[in-house]
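hey
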């Protein structure tokens, strides 16, 4: 009797409501071809892939660092078959929501911002899709959902119609979460949510005005004198947070905490060298104090002479936003509602910044600081690595992937500080698609293993072959055997999924002489799956 398994970690599409689709876990069994077992299932641009955005210009070839001594030369891959084991399985931190950071500026047409060796579009490397495109957003949302990711934090450059219309990407996530039927259970219960990460680089450029009293849409030059800098930045931030209130904070898919919209601030205060980071006004602490006071009552403070009857009124009560700042120091920032961790690379690829380094930059030190601020909202951090060798602003910063162990260990560091009785509310992955800095999770993470299989009598055996000593079985979830009794035309899962330590399976019940077998290594969440070639039984 054939032991066709009825248990598979797989995502399917089920009807949520009429005309709407939502991804959900199921144990459905279906037939695969040998090629489909390891076919691309990511939103990366791969030729002929049904899961890639339909607007891909061509296949993404991945990115390499050709410098000598680089431990992970192919630091962004060309896409592949990524594990769909739920990302939360790496955590024992309670009901943690896992977000991924999304970069909005990617486009496929090379322009003068690139070079012959590194083509770029809008100063960004080229992953071959346009981020500001519904097809791309749809593909990414489906991919996030199949991996168990709870939301996307959008790197946000203001309500601008600039070169890549950055807020348009946020609004596409907002609309497509609804259009794909990802909110069948109502507000704040969408399968994938979204939120805004305000990028301080946007302050340098003018954006669209809200005409809110006391606000300004002017760009703020980084060389402004001390009082002029604050007098420019504060009105500009008022403009932008009123815009967020009108077009984002009230949306069913926008992330809130205890009824308050969450906004992260990724701001390099040192860019404004004349505005002190400490001390009395004019200073950055006073900027944040003013923004906090203003944000406490957006319904009244975002009123404006031309706001009456607006399609998206800014003076509405969506709750006072929680302002979340970066790093250990973010907990103590004036007006802070909490802090988020971030990847902290150096020019040493071996400095992984997971456990304590004594400089306040590691994940461990971030969680230690969070423990001392129990009332603050903590956003944990995980990452696969970092490599900015292809970026327009590269500074030879590296953080090695260690064949996926950096990713797995950075996720699991949270388990040392949080539990079901002391839960971590949020964890953010840096990043989903920052191909500029080699942090993208979208394309999956290579664990440096290949798999071969052989048959001995009525036993199927398989072997792992690491390409480097950094490979570790901690990046493996298990193994699944696939069998074909029609000459290799179609395959189905055979037997239950085996553990990461298993290296064989009995073939009892299979017809000898007419069966072909494939062994698939199933990675931990976000690790690329691998498979053996077919062997005969």
């Amino acid at each position: 009797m054939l032991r066709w398994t009825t248990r598979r970690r797989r995502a399917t599409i089920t009807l949520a409501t009429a005309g709407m689709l939502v991804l959900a876990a199921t144990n459905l069994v279906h037939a695969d071809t040998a090629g489909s077992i390891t076919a691309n299932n990511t939103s990366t641009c791969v030729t002929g892939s049904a899961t890639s955005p339909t607007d891909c210009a061509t296949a993404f070839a991945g990115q390499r660092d050709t410098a000598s001594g680089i431990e992970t030369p192919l630091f962004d891959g060309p896409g592949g078959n990524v594990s769909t084991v739920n990302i939360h399985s790496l955590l024992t931190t309670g009901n943690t929501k896992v977000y991924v950071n999304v970069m909005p500026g990617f486009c496929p047409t090379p322009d003068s911002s690139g070079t012959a060796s590194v083509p770029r579009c809008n100063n960004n490397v080229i992953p071959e899709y346009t981020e500001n495109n519904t097809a791309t957003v749809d593909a990414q949302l489906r991919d996030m959902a199949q991996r168990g990711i709870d939301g996307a934090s959008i790197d946000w450059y203001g309500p601008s119609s600039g070169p890549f219309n950055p807020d348009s990407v946020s609004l596409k996530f907002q609309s497509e979460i609804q259009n794909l039927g990802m909110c069948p259970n109502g507000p704040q219960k969408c399968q994938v949510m979204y939120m805004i990460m305000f990028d301080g680089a946007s302050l340098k450029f003018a954006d669209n005005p809200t005409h809110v009293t006391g606000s300004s849409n002017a760009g703020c030059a980084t060389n402004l004198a001390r009082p002029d800098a604050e007098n420019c930045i504060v009105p500009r931030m008022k403009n932008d947070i009123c815009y967020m209130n009108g077009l984002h904070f009230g949306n069913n898919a926008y992330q809130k905490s205890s009824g308050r919209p969450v906004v992260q601030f990724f701001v390099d205060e040192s860019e404004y060298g004349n505005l002190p980071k400490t001390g009395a006004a004019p200073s950055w602490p006073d900027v944040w104090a003013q923004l906090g006071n203003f944000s406490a009552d957006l319904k009244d403070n975002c009123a404006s002479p031309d706001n009456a009857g607006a399609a998206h009124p800014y003076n509405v009560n969506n709750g006072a936003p929680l302002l979340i700042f970066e790093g250990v120091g973010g907990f103590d920032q004036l007006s802070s509602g909490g802090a988020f961790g971030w990847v902290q690379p150096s020019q040493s690829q071996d400095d992984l910044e997971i456990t304590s380094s004594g400089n306040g930059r590691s994940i461990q030190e971030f969680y230690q600081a969070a423990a001392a601020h129990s009332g603050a909202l903590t956003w944990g951090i995980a990452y696969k690595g970092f490599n900015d060798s292809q970026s327009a602003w590269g500074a030879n910063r590296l953080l090695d992937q260690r064949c996926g162990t950096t990713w797995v260990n950075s996720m699991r560091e949270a388990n040392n500080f949080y539990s079901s009785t002391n839960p971590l509310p949020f964890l953010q992955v840096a990043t989903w698609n920052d191909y500029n800095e080699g942090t993208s999770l979208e394309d999956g993470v290579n664990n440096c293993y290949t798999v071969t299989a052989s048959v001995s009598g009525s036993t199927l055996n398989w072997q792992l072959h690491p390409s480097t000593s950094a490979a570790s079985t901690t990046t493996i979830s298990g193994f699944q055997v696939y069998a074909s009794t029609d000459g290799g035309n179609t395959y189905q899962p055979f037997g239950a999924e085996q553990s990461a330590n298993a290296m064989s399976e009995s073939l009892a019940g299979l017809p000898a002489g007419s069966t072909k077998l494939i062994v698939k290594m199933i990675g931990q969440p976000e690790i690329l799956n691998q498979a053996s070639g077919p062997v005969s039984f």
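The chain has seven helices and 25 strands. The two ends are 16 Å apart (CA to CA).
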